[in-house]
Amino acid sequence: MQVSLTLNGRIRTVDVAPHHTLLDALRDDLGLTGTKECCLVGECGACTVRLNGRIVDSCLVLAAEADGGEVTTVEGLAPDPGQLTRLQSAFIDKGAVQCGFCIPGQLMAGDDLLRRVPHPSRAEIEEGLAGNLCRCACYEQIFAAVEVTAAGEAPAESVAAESSSVRELPPHVVDQ
Amino acid sequence: MSVEIGQPVGRGGGEPRVTGDQLYVADIHLPNELHAKLVTLPVAHARIRAIDASRALAVPGCRMVHTAADMPGEMPRFGPQFSDRPVIATGEVKYHGDPVAIVAADTKDAAEEAARLVEVDYEELPAVFTVAGALAEGAPLVQDPALRPGDPLANTNVLREHRVGWGEVDGATADVVVEHTYNFPMVTQFAIEPHAFVAAPDGDGLAVWTTIQHPYWLQRVLARAVGLPLARVRVHAPDPGGAFGGKQHAKYEPVLAFMALKAGRPVRLVLSLEETFQAVRRTETQITVRTGVHRDGSFAFQDIDAYYLIGAYADIADRVTGKGSYIGNGPYNWPAARILARSVLSHTVPSTAFRGFGNPQVNWAVESNITDAALTLRIDPLEIRLRNLAKKGDHFIPFDTPCDGDWAQTVKRAAVLAHWDAPKPAGHGRGIALGIKSGPTTGLSHSLVRLLADGSVVVYAGTQDMGQGARTIFAQIAAAELHVPMEQVSTVMGDTAVVPYDQQTSASRSTVLMGNAVLAACREIKAKLRDKGADLDDGTQSTAQAVRAALGRLGGEVMGTGEARKEADPGHPLGGSAAFFEFNATAVELSVDEETGDITIHRHVAVSDVGRSINRLQVTMQDEGAAIMGLGHTLMEHYIFDDAGRIRNLGAIDYRIPTSMDLPREMLSDTVENGDGPGPYGAKGMSEGALLAVSSAVAAAVRDATGVAIRDLPLSPERVWRALRKRDGELQSSGA
Amino acid sequence: MRAFAYERPTTLADAVALLAEHGPDARILAGGTDLIIRLRDGTYAPSVVVDVKRVRELAPAITQTDGALRVSAGTVMTDIHDSPLMQRWFPALVDAARFVGSVQIRNRATLAGNICNASPAADTVPSLLVYDARVHAIGPAGERTIPLDDFFVRSGVTTLQPGELVTAIDLPLPSGRVGSAFQRRTRRRGHDLASVTLAVALDDAGTTRLAYGSLGPRPLLFVSEGGAPPLDDWFAAARPSPTSMRASPDYRLAMLRVLTQRAMAAARERLEAAA
């Protein structure tokens, strides 16, 4: 069946089997592999996307359900190629990226949290990201990235500069 | 502007990971690829009588159903320690999840449907999946004795015994002897990226894309299995999405290689999360420790009797047994010690390497017993450890590398951060435990560095960056040595056809071994430039200027190669002494809800002796990540089996790992850096240390808070609750 | 997943007709957080999936109607815990809705789906029971209203007739002051399936209501109209599964007592604080 959706700001039309999930369609038919596949039962959040203004686990959404809807994936977070959002820069800044596999989902959840709660407390961050597992367990660093973004302290950076600058250690790290 | 070693420079490869551009194996598609799906049986052990693939092959798009019968000639076997594992199950399945067939089809849907339609006629056989079961009189043998001719243990499920010892244990006197048995359950790596593989014909050779940690080791395995020269086997190894040891060794690459060469098309297999639980796990242990201590707190003897329950195939698990138990005594001076560790085969998922490599399990037993002895003697658990801690230069393991750090400094730092001497809030308990692990015992890393005509640099390193940030470390070293900014350095990894040989990525070795190789390559470049009259270190010109001048009219580039080598020592029980030790002190403060058994960790302190941080931020990330993984093992992770050896809790709903809401209220990590490591700038390896002593520290704190000693993991709310009710005399019978 | 046909009716009449036409070969898709998992593991293998999210009569809504708060079938957990009306009148349901899975799950899981799935561990059911919820259903034989306590049979089975679907759930607004609370037991602080769920509601007439789930084939409701409630009798009806992976029977029964005490205390506090 044909499904039309606004995907990262562009209208896309794609043929999908009814039993294929939105995750399948994004990764296999729409060429967007940024959204990841892991548990397939709605526990790990690696497949998190924004659908009609709310974040969902795309492994639990049929592609057909997104027909006529609006979907944003990690590829659609940044306004322009080569630019990163403040949250994306903060993730790199704060050491929140280790293996990176959970990161697209974490970014979608972090982005969603900051839209709903512009200045979240630590407890609100924990709860807002509770649906995103990180086995490398850089949770503290991910929280720090969300916090500095909320505080307006994360600089919007262009891609080229990111490797060279020296980052800050998380505040709880003892640095003699 | 050049980069200082130690600075928390941003992760190389961070940008594509936050934009979604990073390509992991499952994101890679080849033209004309076939999609594979495993066919497994709902049993732990069975004889395969017949496989009928006719209905499966009738599915439109299904191209192949590969079974043992389709293997050419004699079934090839592989394995990093023993060639025990058939490329695909032959005659028998030996664990729940052992594939009997692999389907390959044009689409994922067709593969799924075809896999459902493969009919297997099998006879379920009794399975052993516990230490007791495997060792019982008349227990079915997991491994065919014919695979171990001449081995006196061949007719048992004990694969191997490892014995280490010194001094006189049996005649030793001690004022206090404590003896307990400790159990560490099966847990799984649960990397967020499931294993993924693509095998494809490549001209007259073979190419493979895989989530592997050891590309060159795999290259050897594949070359031998399919009968190709190494030079015709190319392993592409994109940065894995987490590995933790579970992606070190060959799994399905060999069988997929056969399938791809037969089909003449790429064959792609991405495991489900459930299938990863059935592919890799940590070794379970049952360890009895008898510790003798003198009244003044000095250690008298240590007697360790350990069973490591490995899976149906050895993988690297016997090495886990040997290496983990070898340093089981911990970082202390013991006048007398005896360690007996056995690898016990079982009809379970093959256990493999997992962060800590056998040390967390023995640490759980030994550190808990030391705490027990301290409490019996009414000596502070911190004091007793400091009293017996090895000092730099002490041969605390008589025939191995001596203590290589100021470990007391690390311990005292942890105690300070944990407020060890401060009064405890009501209901709080504190625990401290020390972890130690031997670094690599052999090593061989080559690096190639190219300084290009404009002063930019390419570093080739065969290490796998699976999240530990290896790319950044090598780039930092090159940037610092060659005096170029980080953004002028690129790293090339993960392709055996392009990148020179690296032995493996494991044992926290890469900063030291590959780091030294990169360092050596950079120094060779500088030596070549000096021969041409340009000294990069004298600061009179930029590297770009120096290179341009040195290369002259023809331009080109300056190449340097470096090698780091640690030779094997055949006389050593582990094949070589430790290159360095990972040493960590973990201290925890917690409270227990006595009605429910819930543990709240108020403060978690981890201090590691790292020699020198190349990148302080990455060191912190690794230590904290290891600590939280340790908390997962301690508080919530375990495989649950049914009576027939089938895993009940496959997948993410009933196998719990820590979420963002399960963290300690306060996490403090710190490092001790005395520049006394063998790596670049005095670095040691790290990334496993902060996991090793978590269980012991948490259980010690629970005991401090409640008085109960628990010797099984995980410390789930129910287990803690049960121990508390027993303490209060409220339980008639012992529960689960 | 096995293949199936996908239908997306836009009116209730069309939805009812589709379900009548396909009978047991059809499954209703609302939030999908339970259904998709079962489609994938093969426990359901329908030939038709009927997506009811575009049925206009079922669009998400929480409205005050006939002395009750009416929750339409399309209303998701996020809507419930964000609703000021819910927070004011039914805090134990808000507490429960906050615990269902993660943000991603709560944005999809419907209240109607939670009850229709009929898991004994359904997080929202104990609160709905102590609030005397009523279920509106429609089918080929017309509309009817079912008290929630009469809705559950056992795990996975409700009293809905073939071809019926839930259109709304009513929560009657209490006439006097009420204090209510929700408690659950899990294996970690992060989201988890519960091994005990329970809710308590106390009113100023002295009535005590307790409902608990995950302790037998269906959640149970107990009401005592004054005086000390016979908790031991109420607890005696619990039948925890001896084979559950999540918790042993004796632990569950012990937690039932502990959590009931905590819920009672919280409910009492809320009752006293109620204006």
Write a concise keyword list for the protein shown above:
heterotrimer, B: 736 residues, alpha+beta, Aldehyde Oxidoreductase, domain 4, Aldehyde Oxidoreductase, domain 3, seven-stranded mixed beta sheet, five-stranded mixed beta sheet, 26% helix, globular, C: 275 residues, Uridine Diphospho-n-acetylenolpyruvylglucosamine Reductase, domain 2, Enolase-like, domain 1, five-stranded antiparallel beta sheet, four-stranded antiparallel beta sheet, 14 strands, 26% strand
Termini separation of chain A (Å)? 62 Å
Average pLDDT confidence of chain C is: 96
Overall mean pLDDT of chain A stands at 90
Low-confidence stretches of chain A at least 5 residues in length (pLDDT < 50)? Answer: 155-165
Query: CATH homologous superfamily name of the domain at 178-273 in chain C?
Result: CO dehydrogenase flavoprotein, C-terminal domain
- Decide which structural class fits the backbone of chain C: alpha+beta
Major sheet of chain A: size, sense and barrel closure?
5 strands, mixed
The CATH architecture name of the largest domain in chain A reads Orthogonal Bundle
Radius of gyration of chain A: 17 Å
The CATH topology name of the largest domain in chain A reads: DNA polymerase, domain 1
Number of helical stretches of at least 4 residues of chain A: 5
Q: Please state roughly what percent of the residues of chain A sit in beta strands, choosing from under 5%, 5-15%, 15-25%, 25-35%, 35-45% or over 45%.
A: 5-15%
CATH homologous superfamily placement of the largest domain in chain A: [2Fe-2S]-binding domain
Shape of chain C: globular
What is the domain tally of chain A? 2
| Spatial ordering of strands, largest sheet of chain C | 4-5-10-6-7
According to CATH, what is the class of the largest domain in chain A? Mainly Alpha
Query: At the third CATH level, what is the topology name of the domain at 178-273 in chain C?
Result: Enolase-like, domain 1
Structure, explained:
The complex is a heterotrimer of chains A (176), B (736) and C (275). Chain A is α+β, with helices and mostly antiparallel strands and 176 residues long. Chain A has helices spanning 22-29, 86-93, 103-116, 122-128, 139-150, and strands spanning 2-7, 10-15, 48-51, 54-57, 70-72. In chain A, strands 2-1-5-3-4 form a 5-stranded mixed β-sheet, sandwiched between helices. In chain A, strand 3 (48-51) and strand 4 (54-57) form a beta hairpin. Chain B is built from 18 helices and 25 strands. In chain B, strand 4 and strand 5 form a beta hairpin. In chain B, helix 5 crosses helix 6 (253-263) and helix 9 (359-377) packs parallel to helix 17. Chain B is globular. The termini of chain C are far apart. The chains are: A alpha+beta (176), B alpha+beta (736), C alpha+beta (275).
